[in-house]
Design a protein that fits this description.
The protein is an all-alpha fold and 97 residues long.
Length: 97
Amino acid sequence: MAAHVLPLTVKLMLEKEGHYALTDEDRAACLATDLLLAETQWVEDRDGRDTGRSWQEVVHKTARSVRFDAIWEKYKREHPELFQRDAEDPATGGSQA
């Protein structure tokens, strides 16, 4: 676990001081840390039996989620007119401003 957390800790400290900008992969790795701590087995058994999610699977799944969220937020910023009506119409679940 230290091999996963230590580089992230250094990167976060460097970012705080303005010497580094976190990448999407860094963010995904940070978000995956709690999920990794909850896993009981990070690798396959030597017999090839799948006894849990591997650490790579956890990090990659989190990275896909981070990328999707970033793409979705960019799309909403680029096309606010598509989402404005939902925010103004209580019938569709939005709230009036």
